Backbone:
């Protein structure tokens, strides 16, 4: 449909196709989650499925490229938290910002909650953001604002739980997550009120989340068609 | 396969078919959620799909009958909470029990979190349990153990959030929900540490949860086959 023509260099069309595919992917993934049909993405972009696969050989490649700007915003939230003068404001502002990003974007909720870690290209970005967040957590603990038994892995629980709230309430009660997150932040305040069960090990949590991401894409990029999807 | 034969009254076979269908439904729903294929339920029960539809004309009928014992347990948890001598133990024990029930059973997680309210027969049971829980909440508030701004609708947020945690972690980190729920109970302890955003109105929350249940079953009981389902 947008093949090379009229003497324009091929790479111009290729770049335009690439942008059209990424824009369509963001829209389709945001509406349906990252397990949406790639055929539908190609259709919305006005390209053939073969063109899509040429540009993005795997679903992960497409997800990573489509959400690169969002992931940059995620990393930026961590950087802003580090820069915040008050340690608790830094920590709580970060939790609220990331949960707000989940609430705005079904696709992003999936990316953060389900492929954390999982998608190689996003992993690199996430690791960078994660390093920043670790600093925010340690500073809030040292300041006496964040309970001492809070661990980084608890943030993954926050994202998984918030995804559960957001997925159910996004249409009819779109601000439900704000009250939920306010409760959680109260729970994280020092001093802790009760002895918590042991934290989940990072390894087990990563396996859990990776498996979930895999289960949701059982056949890789080509195994799905547009009409088999169960909307959530 | 189990048709009337050998002079046995038809109702004996009918009752046996019914039990086989319910047992298969519990297994399939627990493994795949309540939007699983009814053809698969029939197959596992060793009956034809026509027999299943004769016994259970709608998916809701089957869900309600399959989970009636679980719903009785849910009502029982509320009754036990009312009977608990200590008001906070009653409240926190109830929250832990219901979240533990979600964690044990993917199908039950769906029933409580997504069709609350939604399925008529389950609704009656849920309303009964809910009346009991309301007493537990009010007693814990009067006792000064539960923060005054806690409302019944917050329990729905707990179930939606816990479903998010449980669905992601059930295989590799099956006790992750325990730490998550311990955090929430700390958040619910009186006095509240921060001013919360307004609670979500019961009407909006019900609409949200009803819609989600509907979206997950877009075509009613006969619109799905066994192979289109996206595992979660």
Residues:
């Amino acid at each position: 449909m947008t093949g090379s023509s009229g003497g324009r260099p091929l790479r111009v069309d290729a770049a335009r196709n690439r942008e059209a595919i990424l824009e369509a992917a963001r829209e389709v993934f945001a509406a349906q989650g990252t397990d949406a049909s790639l055929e539908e993405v190609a259709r919305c972009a006005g390209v053939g499925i073969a063109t899509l696969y040429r540009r993005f050989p795997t679903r992960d490649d497409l997800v990573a490229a489509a959400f690169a700007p969002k992931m940059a915003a995620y990393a930026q939230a961590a950087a802003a938290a580090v820069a915040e003068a008050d340690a608790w404001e830094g920590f709580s502002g970060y939790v609220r910002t990331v949960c707000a990003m989940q609430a705005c974007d079904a696709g992003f909720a999936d990316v953060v909650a389900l492929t954390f870690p999982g998608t190689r290209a996003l992993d690199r970005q996430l690791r960078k953001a994660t390093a920043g967040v670790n600093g925010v957590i340690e500073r809030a603990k040292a300041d006496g604002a964040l309970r001492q038994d809070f661990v980084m892995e608890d943030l993954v629980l926050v994202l998984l739980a918030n995804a559960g709230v957001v997925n159910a309430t996004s249409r009819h009660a779109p601000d439900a997550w704000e009250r939920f997150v306010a409760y959680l932040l109260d729970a994280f305040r020092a001093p802790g009120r009760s002895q918590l069960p042991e934290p989940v090990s990072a390894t087990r949590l990563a396996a859990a989340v990776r498996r979930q991401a895999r289960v949701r894409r059982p056949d890789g990029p080509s195994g799905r068609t547009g009409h088999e999807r169960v909307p959530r």
User: Anything to note?
Assistant: The radius of gyration of chain A is 20 Å.
